[in-house]
Amino acid sequence: MTDIIKHECGIAMIRLRKPLQYYIDKYGTPLYGVNKLYLLMEKQHNRGQDGVGVANIKIDVPPGSRYISRYRSIAERPISEVFKKINKKFRKAKKQYGSEKLKDAAWLQKNVAFTGELWLGHLRYGTHGKNSIEYCHPMLRQNNWRSRNLVVAGNFNMTNVDELFDILVKLGQHPKEKADTVTVMEKIGHFLDQENQELFDQYKFSHTNQQVTEIIEDTLNLQRVLQRSCKDFDGGYAMAGLIGSGSSFVARDPAGIRPAYYYADDEVVVVASEKPAIKTAFNVPYDSIKEIEPAHALIIDKKGNYSEQQFIEKLEKRSCSFERIYFSRGSDPNIYHERKKLGQLLIPQILKGIDYDLQNTVFSYIPNSAETSFLGILQGLEDHLSNERIMAIQEAQKKGDNIDESYITRLLSFRPRVEKLVVKDAKLRTFITDDDHRDELVAHVYDTTYEVIKKGVDNIVVVDDSIVRGTTLEKSILRMLDRLEPKKIIIASSAPQIRFPDCYGIDMSKMNDFVAFRAVLALLKEAHMENLIDDVYEQCVAEGTKHGAPNFVKELYVPFSYEQVSEMIGKIVRPDDLKAELEIVYQTVENLHKACPEHKGDWYFTGDYPTHGGNKVVNKAFVNFMEGKAVRAY
Predict the structure, then answer these.
(1) Predicted confidence (pLDDT) per residue in 387-420, tens digit
(2) Helices 275-282, 32-42: inter-axial angle, 10-degree rounding
(3) How far is CA 141 from CA 68, 193, 263, 544, in A?
(4) Which of 83, 258, 263, 538 is deepest in the core (most CB within 10 A)?
(5) Angle of helix 530-543 relative to helix 515-526, nearest 10 degrees?
């Protein structure tokens, strides 16, 4: 993608269902859990490269023993950094006490950290300038009772942080920060404490305190904890939690916005944000990897028994389509085919844009994530050519002896022209220059392959995953392609026009960042309809943040067709000195749903948010834009 957009985040959880000694005896290493978690996280490094954290819990160690271990890092290569530190524990033990001790699970769990049965890993992108170690998950809420300790990591954003903060204050708490991570953890922690207290009160007169502790750990009802704590959440989330006594959960939002998958056998229960990570780490069939149902939590008790349990009322399933277009790894077979389909469905618009002149058109893509959609375009072109050949042969058969054999030969042998035109150079350090000259360096982040275009004759078609801001097109890609002197440049986006902010995990929160929004403002000005902008602003101020308010900002797009917005986007991103013709082609929302039928979350394209909080956010984002506030709206 030319315009990098970040999202939050990736989770990986492993519950070893056998004692540690089992894995040492079977696999010949005490690092079975460490190695598997490392693989899960490396295979999801696309989900977050700004910060990493790992937590581990030992189950049923004696009092006085440390049972929770955690490392976090914001180093340049944070995954490697964290696992180097973990492995250092084992190397130090081997050096001090000998290799035989590494075969003794009881000794390891008494003397070495990160030897527990419960693992939780997290990957994150730092958004809005917040990328210190304190923002790295897993977060830890500590207590002297094991069953009150809580470790939380998640892929989520809440739209109603202010409301959740006020609820905590009314409960009597004093939150240290107004942030979704803090409010989520403290709210779950509050009801975890309450569940503990209720069980303690139930058994305190019939058992000793130590016996009550064991009963609480064995009977803790995490479904009830989640029912009580999550009922006020408005957002997209896949939240993983570990309890110090050994039980755990992964809870998924009621619309299934954020992804979560799991696999279980008699040795492990494993959860990840993406299926290929589980497939690679554990070498299991794809059909054995299951999706956690929306509004359900995968709950694993202290003994390692697991089940999916509903904890909140379900909404219409609106899984994030950007996961399929861009974020998730394309090695998932379903995602791979969906991305090819997205490219294939662009063919009618592309053919129209080049006036069906395939002989004088070169096809390429912007590396590297658009490659799969590009393969779909090639497949679509081959299908088009096959139909043309069939029609030509049928026509020739009708003519009998008058067949133009040379034409038939050219038609049968013709292949679309494909070149690697766009090459991304090594990352240029633009901070070494002043603001006035930075754009000049940015323009050279990409380079091209020269002398493969017939000057003034050829069209160039370049496919991209998505066009968000359009700045890289304007400052780099288009100028670079124009140096090849083509007749026309077509930039084809395999995603529809991004018109509205996201508030469920993707770092797209400010209206003016979207070139489609800037285009509709330009169209309104051109049509002398600026009064509509003021009307929408007044509606957003008066009613926009009320519960049940609609998305008023959608009204700005109503007067114009999809094609008109695309055309204006082309004018906005077109450099003043561009010589070639330019056309911007966007995927349609209808075709997006054809390609990704199971992932209908499209609010950033359509403005149809799956929760009430989404409408509040977009209305507030528009108010911020109108008032010149460069802050996110949630």
Answers:
(1) 988 887 787 777 666 667 777 777 788 899 999 8
(2) 140
(3) 11, 11, 28, 36
(4) 258
(5) 120
